[in-house]
Structure formats: structure tokens, C-alpha cells
Specification:
The complex is a heterodimer of chains A (163) and B (185). Chain A is α+β, with helices and mostly antiparallel strands. Chain A is built from three helices and five strands. Chain A has one domain. Chain A is rod-shaped. The chains are: A alpha+beta (163), B mainly alpha (185).
């Protein structure tokens, strides 16, 4: 028997095997699980969009709070026009205050800095309602947002300007 | 919509695109996985392979080879991870090139007549590197260039592994047939 015969024998065996293997396929359960995963992905995607809205809504909720005085000693400085970046020496920040979705686990988070009315400070106990009628303008806030777009926490930022 | 578009849409969570991508390629990935790490694990490998795709939500890069090669590449990575011992896959290519084929046997002629189970068993008993070449190039009919990309080796290496794999297969089938004849006697 020569090599050609040998190859033909093996080739024929492999052809038969390939043909028989056509009936072998992934179990339907796998496809079902993967389809469920795709549906969940769609859900997560929608949740992200909802989450983004929620984050914005949370920021908006902070924004529409009743105006109060925050860090009254800085009141004048913070409402007399925006200083140049070079004038800002450092920042003072509050601790992070948990928001509605603060207890939802997040694998990663990032901080979004926004401007909110001083009124926002009341609901976090940073200013009293007594001062609210005397205060206008905005303050800076860092919103901690999860990868799902849900806002977890907020802190307030006070720039400290150079003399 | 071609394979690459399906892949991109599937990565974005498009259920229809994913379904089509899965339907088109699951069988070949299953076959590859079944030969490389057993039928019991093949379902898991297929599932994990497509989960990898689904978790690439931020990726938009197209595979350099075909989508099938890309998917089998993922499956291969998972299979090797599962084996845990990559030394099993190591092949001394220099020795391989010079390795003589087994002596022709009278039983080679009847190799084609053996039962499917015997042939399948013989393929599964090949060393992983040779088995992989046989499965990809003979059973999956993937061309040598694509197999070389998948296996991350030159085309010549694919050819030599395939040659050696076929020779080993012939020998195994011959032994199997001899045993069968003995048993019948």
C-alpha cells in the first residue's frame, strides 16, 4: 500500500466523520441563555439611558432646592464673577452625601462636576433655611455617577482663590 | 448584512444580529470545542465565546481575519485556559519536520470503513496540537492560511502538523481495526 492509499483512507474516514458531525450542535439551553443575556443587555442599555436621566433628574433636584446661604464667608467672592483658572489655588470639598441610588453597587464610577444653585445646600444640612432668602448664585458640585449612569453621591466644592 | 456587520451589531446588543451570528457559527465552534476538550465542555465553551462577544459593547474594531476565525480564536483561548497546561500543546516542530510517517499497514485501506465512533475516538486521542490541525483543516475545512492565523504559526507549521496528525490517525485507525478483527475472531 502506498502513501496515496493511506491518505485516501484517512481522508475518507475524515469525510465520513465530518458528515456525521453535522448532527452535533450546541444545546438549545445555551442559545436560550445567550438570548436572555442579549435581552438583559438591552435592558441594561435602557437602564443606562434611564440612569442618565435619573442622574440628570438628581442634579436637577439639587438645583431646584430652596436658595440658602452656603459658606457665607465665601458668598461675596463666589458671586462676583468667575475668576480665571490661574486664580484658583485649591479647593475645599465637603464629604460625599449619598443620593437615592447610593446603595446600588457599581463596578466603576466617575465624577461629573456641575454647577447647582446654592439652594441645594439646604437639603444636605450645609446651610439653614433661615439664610435661603439671602442667597443667590450657584455653587460647584461633584456628582458620583456609576457606569450604569445612576448618580450615587454628591459633594460640594468651594474654590479657594489666591489673594 | 455580512458577518462583520453582524458582529458589530451583536456587540451593541442587537438581538437579531446576535441570533444570526450565533446560528451561523455556533456549530463550528461547538465541533472545535468538542474535539479539543470534550463534548461535555463544548456547550460551556460556545456559551463563553459568545458571552465574550456580548461583553465587547465598547469595541468597534473588525477582526483581522474572518469572523469565524475570530470566534474560534476566542474559543481556542478558552480551551487552552481550561486545559491549564499549555505544555501539552507544545510541539517540537524541528522533530516534527523530520518525523517519519508510520509504516504503511494493511489495515490503512479499511480505515475508511471503520465506525464513526472509532474514527472520532482516534481524532480525540491525537495530541492537542495535531488534533487541532486536523479538526480545523480537515473537519472544519478552514484553509491553511486562516488556520495559521488562528494557531499563530506559519502555514508550513500547519501543514506539517496536519501531515503528522494524519499519519498518527492512520496508525491509530489501523490499530483500532486490528483490535476489532481480533475481537471478531
Amino acid at each position: 500500500m502506498n502513501d496515496l492509499d493511506r491518505r485516501d483512507g484517512v481522508s475518507e474516514a475524515l469525510r465520513r466523520l465530518a458528515s456525521a458531525d453535522r448532527t452535533m450542535t450546541t444545546s438549545p439551553a445555551v442559545e436560550a441563555r445567550l438570548r436572555a443575556e442579549v435581552r438583559a443587555m438591552g435592558g441594561r442599555s435602557q437602564a443606562w439611558n434611564r440612569g442618565t436621566l435619573v442622574a440628570l433628574a438628581a442634579a436637577l433636584a439639587v438645583c431646584v432646592s430652596v436658595p440658602v446661604l452656603w459658606w457665607s464667608t465665601q458668598d461675596h467672592a463666589m458671586s462676583t464673577g468667575a475668576p480665571g483658572a490661574s486664580q484658583i489655588a485649591r479647593e475645599a470639598t465637603t464629604e460625599f452625601f449619598p443620593l437615592f441610588f447610593g446603595s446600588v453597587p457599581a463596578s466603576s464610577e466617575h465624577i461629573v462636576r456641575i454647577e447647582v444653585p446654592r439652594a441645594s445646600l439646604v437639603q444636605f444640612g450645609l446651610a439653614s433655611a433661615h439664610d435661603m432668602n439671602r442667597t443667590t448664585g450657584t455653587v460647584l458640585a461633584d456628582v458620583l455617577v456609576g457606569e450604569d449612569g445612576l448618580a450615587r453621591a454628591v459633594r460640594f466644592v468651594r474654590p479657594i482663590f489666591q489673594e | 448584512m455580512d458577518d462583520r456587520e453582524l458582529l458589530e451589531q451583536a456587540r451593541q446588543g442587537d438581538a437579531l444580529a446576535f441570533s444570526r451570528l450565533f446560528s451561523q457559527h455556533q456549530r463550528q465552534i461547538f465541533h472545535y470545542a468538542a474535539y479539543m476538550c470534550g463534548v461535555a465542555a463544548a456547550d460551556d465553551i460556545v456559551q463563553e465565546t459568545f458571552l465574550v462577544v456580548l461583553r465587547q459593547t465598547g469595541r468597534r474594531d473588525a477582526p483581522s481575519a474572518s469572523v469565524l476565525a475570530y470566534l474560534i480564536g476566542i474559543a481556542r483561548h478558552l480551551v487552552m485556559k481550561r486545559h491549564g497546561r499549555t505544555s501539552e500543546w507544545a510541539v517540537d516542530e524541528a522533530v516534527l519536520e523530520d518525523a517519519p510517517s508510520p509504516e504503511p499497514s494493511a489495515f490503512d485501506r479499511v480505515a475508511a470503513a471503520q465506525s464513526i465512533d472509532a474514527i472520532r475516538g482516534a481524532v480525540r486521542s491525537l495530541p492537542p496540537a495535531y488534533r487541532e490541525a486536523v479538526v480545523l483543516c480537515e473537519l472544519q475545512e478552514i484553509d491553511y492560511a486562516m488556520a495559521a492565523t488562528l494557531l499563530n504559526c506559519p502555514v508550513g507549521t500547519v501543514r506539517s502538523r496536519l501531515h503528522r496528525g494524519r499519519a498518527l490517525l492512520a496508525a491509530k485507525l489501523a490499530v483500532s481495526m486490528r483490535e476489532e478483527v481480533e475481537r471478531v475472531r
